[in-house]
Design goal:
single chain; 333 residues; Trigger_fact/SurA_dom_sf; peptidyl-prolyl cis-trans isomerase activity
Length: 333
């Protein structure tokens, strides 16, 4: 994520948010007037926010009128802070199209983030953990397996039957291991993987075994690390008993013995070892620098806005019938 994106939107100060603010005098400290003006739904100091301005922000940013009003209030408070820091002149505050006042303060927050020092070990570990698939991915194992499910209240006879079925599956799938060793893993082309003949042979062999009255599931699985983490963007964890067993397989076509997990009795065959992709720590630190600086600035922005609302809360006035006025705002383009 670039700093430009941060300036333009990630901190919630979009161009329209400031471009739609109503003209007013430079921020001052006198309490806001309580006089009701036509179309005005809120005041921040001497600045007014109208229902029409709220509508423009709601349309431009695709938010509800209520949230658009909150954004307008934050924009006015942000403008006050930019002026008080000397980042923008009082005259500029009167120019409704001048969005530089927000950019200057946001740039100041980014500069403060940079001055806080390089990416710390804690920040690096946090980003590496979140982006582990691209930055710190360990070796993984793509497999096909069959599992004989055993009811929790199964008696010894049922468990013995499950073991017998699992052993029969193990014997049936041995030829698929020979096929796997002869045929390399299929290549992925145009986002789709070609059929794996060894995988199909395993599934067909497992399906040929009589399951009696027990449930058997046979399927190909996503690559999994030895610790049970699945190589998918969404978090997914396999039983450690399963991932630990398949991580011991060395080559394509190797087949486990029958082994238990919380799901039942398994037989698994290795289809492919997916190489690790781990960037050196200092290289990762350079790679995540901009993301970390942006996160620091975003955190500072949120803290600043919270502080501004506490500090200048007495300057914010919502008119008596603002809820009704905002509720009637039309947000069609």
């Amino acid at each position: 994520m670039s700093h430009e994106l941060l300036l333009a939107g990630c901190l919630g100060i979009a161009a329209c948010g400031l471009g739609c603010r109503d003209e007013g005098s430079p921020p001052g400290d006198p309490p806001p007037s309580t006089q009701r003006l036509e179309g005005v739904v809120a005041r921040v100091g001497d600045a007014t926010i109208t229902a029409a301005a709220v509508a423009r922000v709601a349309v431009a940013q695709g938010v509800s009128p209520q949230l658009a009003l909150e954004k307008q209030i934050d924009d006015e408070l942000f403008a006050r802070e930019a002026h008080e820091r000397g980042l923008v002149s009082a005259g500029a505050l009167q120019n409704r199209r001048n969005i530089l006042l927000s950019r200057r303060l946001l740039r100041a927050l980014l500069d403060e983030a940079e001055r806080a020092g390089p990416v710390t070990d804690t920040e690096l570990d946090e980003v590496s953990s979140r982006r582990w698939l691209e930055l710190d991915r360990p070796e993984a194992f793509r497999t096909v397996h069959a599992v004989v499910q055993i009811p929790e209240d199964a008696d010894p006879a049922t468990r013995a039957k499950a073991t017998r079925i699992a052993e029969a599956i193990r014997a049936a799938v041995v030829p698929s291991g020979d096929i796997a060793r002869q045929d390399p893993p299929p290549e992925t082309q145009r986002g789709a993987q070609n059929p794996d003949t060894a995988q199909k042979a395993f599934l067909d062999a497992a399906a040929s075994v009589a399951t009696e009255d027990l449930k058997v599931t046979a399927e190909a699985l996503s690559p999994v690390t030895a610790s049970g983490r699945v190589l998918r963007p969404e978090p997914q964890q396999f039983d450690i008993a399963f991932s630990g067993a398949v991580a011991k397989l060395e080559a394509r076509g190797d087949i486990t013995g029958v082994f238990p997990s919380a799901h039942g009795l398994h037989v698994a065959m290795l289809l492919e070892r997916v190489p690790a992709s781990v960037f050196p720590r200092e290289e990762r630190r350079r790679m995540v620098h901009e993301e970390v600086m942006t996160a620091r600035a975003r955190t500072a922005h949120l803290a600043l806005m919270e502080g501004l609302r506490r500090q200048h809360g007495n300057l914010v006035r919502i008119v008596d019938d603002a809820d009704a006025s905002v509720a009637l705002v039309k947000i069609e383009p």
